[in-house]
Structure to design on (87 residues):
């Protein structure tokens, strides 16, 4: 009886913790929220993960990392051509 009650309490507590953590970590930005298909700095598809975003000329650009965002901001006019913007 003791073992059964232990298992029950573990099942009740764990799933809610995991769900809230996953949402906070991964659902920050999604590919659907940005106007570029590729990270213009490294060429990675934004669907693979977005760490940071910026607004540039009424577009929202997603980047896989803060480093890529900083790289873009050094020369946005040139780098925007590599962003593969959605039509
Ligand atoms: Zn990148």
């Amino acid at each position: 009886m003791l073992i059964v009650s232990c298992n029950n309490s573990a099942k009740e507590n764990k799933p809610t913790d995991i769900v809230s953590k996953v949402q906070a970590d991964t659902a920050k930005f999604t590919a659907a929220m940005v106007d570029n298909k590729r990270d213009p700095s490294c060429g990675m598809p934004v669907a693979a993960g977005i760490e940071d975003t910026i607004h540039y000329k009424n577009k929202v650009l997603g980047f896989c990392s803060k480093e890529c965002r900083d790289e873009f901001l050094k020369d946005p006019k040139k780098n925007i051509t590599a962003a593969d913007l959605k039509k």
Remarks:
- Helices lie at 2-26, 66-74, 76-79.
- The CA atoms of residues 43 and 82 lie 7 Å apart.
